[in-house]
Amino acid sequence: MTRSDEPRATGSCLCGSVTFSVHGPLRDVIVCHCRMCRRLSSHASAFSACAPGDLRVAPGRNLRWYRSSPSARRGFCSKCGAQLFWEPAHGGHISISAGSLDEPTHLKIIEQIFLDAKGDYYDVVTAATDAHLQPDRPGIAKKT
Length: 144
Ligand SMILES: [Zn+2]
What we know:
Elements: E1 9-12, E2 19-22, E3 27-32, H1 35-41, E4 45-50, E5 55-57, E6 63-69, E7 72-77, E8 83-88, E9 94-97, E10 109-113, H2 127-130
Parallel strand pairs: 3-10
Antiparallel strand pairs: 1-2, 2-5, 3-4, 4-9, 6-7, 7-8, 8-9
Zinc ion binds next to loops.
């Protein structure tokens, strides 16, 4: 194994039948509150990302792909159902479920997106909203 073959990160689904490694930089984590992510994962989704060529999925038959929209498909384990990847049709990157990564990830959440599509049962405090916190403003949690 050459030095460049040492993975930056490794990860797997819940049952362990899909395993992967990342051989390049990982982006910090973006949390997505869109309707599709919430339908699929029970709540918001949290994804890191890498260049498509840097992701190596171990050979096996359990990784399946679901085309969730014309512009993207989602990779999941057909045995345990874990959501693992989100791949845009333009192929510029591949998103990796943050929860599937082995720790320590050395990553942090840097952004929350599609807040206008978040569920009505929770509030989100972000750095952006935190600066404008108003206790009476609906949809924004009061910092305690
Ligand atoms: Zn699995």
